[in-house]
Write a structure and sequence with these properties.
The complex is a heterodimer of chains A (229) and B (80). Chain A is of the alpha/beta class. Chain A contains 5 helices and 11 strands. Chain A is globular and about 45 Å long. The chains are: A alpha/beta (229), B alpha+beta (80).
């Protein structure tokens, strides 16, 4: 599986996700600078975490208008898979590749700790190595992760099974207790309709080796390799 | 030509920053402050003299970048 990881001014987890990809594929992904309007064909495009453009104006707002994102939108329209993590999730919602928006955490604090996520479906390129209903533990690190979509959009998302992960308690109960940021319906990650684009606020790339304190994120990357190689 | 853009949250969208500001004002001795919603003010200097064209272009700027229309409204004021 050939992967491309985008790098914006202010990205800071591109190295982490590149390492996770190298760990499971044995091959370093290509790092693509935001100013490049074109890059080598790849099986997967990753939009990493960080503080692109310093979060100025709105998180991901200016990164979404980068030359590279115009090309990413073209390729996504042709079905090239896109994995968008944290700031990446903010960027792709601003770019219109995923519905909704990420707002300031409801309790106003930057949250930086492990969360539990319930995997909503195993029927996707990204989650095929998990089981539906499985609970995984991965870290979050964000101040603007409060997912919001209007009533109609939310209904469409839920009806079409576009919710990928929900914040839950360690035992899997989706009762709000595991929600670190006030996201509506405890949504932590969503797919586009075709399930070729997925955005999530947590950092699976930081839970791929025992030394991280957990490996639950590894199966996400392994699933991608299975699906795309 | 100078333009002033106000970007504000749509009604019904949670504004915890506004709430925090309101509580701080209450604690500072302004109990009469009941509700606060905060937004952004952006001032632009345009090399454009046609007011109609300026307004059209500003509208586009707001829709494309300055406001996220999922949760924000915007208003445009031309100065001078």
């Amino acid at each position: 599986m050939k992967a491309a990881v985008l790098v914006f001014p202010g990205s800071n987890r591109e190295g982490d996700v590149a390492q996770a990809i190298e760990l499971v594929t044995g091959r370093k992904p290509q790092m693509v600078w935001h100013g490049d309007g074109d890059f080598e064909k790849s099986d997967l495009i990753v939009v990493p975490g960080g503080f692109s453009y310093g979060d100025y104006l709105r998180c991901g707002a200016m990164a979404a208008q980068s030359p590279v994102m115009a090309e990413v939108k073209r390729r996504a329209a042709q079905g090239v898979p896109v994995l968008a993590i944290c700031n990446g999730f903010q960027i792709v919602t601003e770019a219109g590749l995923l519905p909704g928006v990420l707002m300031r955490n409801a309790q106003l604090k930057f949250v930086c700790h492990d969360v539990h996520l319930k995997v909503e479906t195993s029927q996707s390129l990204f989650t095929n190595r998990y089981q539906a209903g499985q609970v995984i533990r991965v870290p979050v690190a964000h101040a603007e992760g409060n997912y919001f979509a209007d009533t109609d959009t939310l209904k469409r998302l839920e009806d079409r099974g576009q919710v990928a992960f929900r914040y839950c308690a360690p035992d899997g109960a989706v009762d709000g207790s595991g929600n670190p940021n006030g996201s509506i319906d405890n949504i932590a990650g969503v797919f586009n309709e075709a399930k070729t684009v997925m955005g999530l606020m947590p950092h699976p790339e930081n839970a791929v080796e025992p030394m991280f304190g957990g490996c639950d994120g590894r199966a996400l990357f392994e699933g991608l390799v299975d699906a795309l190689s | 030509m100078k333009a002033r853009v106000h970007v504000t949250l749509k009604n019904g969208v949670l504004d915890p920053q506004g709430k925090a500001i309101g509580h701080s004002l209450n604690r500072l001795g302004f109990p009469e402050v009941a509700d606060v919603r905060q937004g952004k003010f952006i001032e632009l200097e345009l090399a454009e003299t046609d007011r109609i064209r300026a307004r059209e272009r500003l509208d586009e700027m707001c829709r494309k970048l300055l406001a996220n229309t999922v949760i924000e409204n915007y208003s445009i004021e031309l100065v001078g």
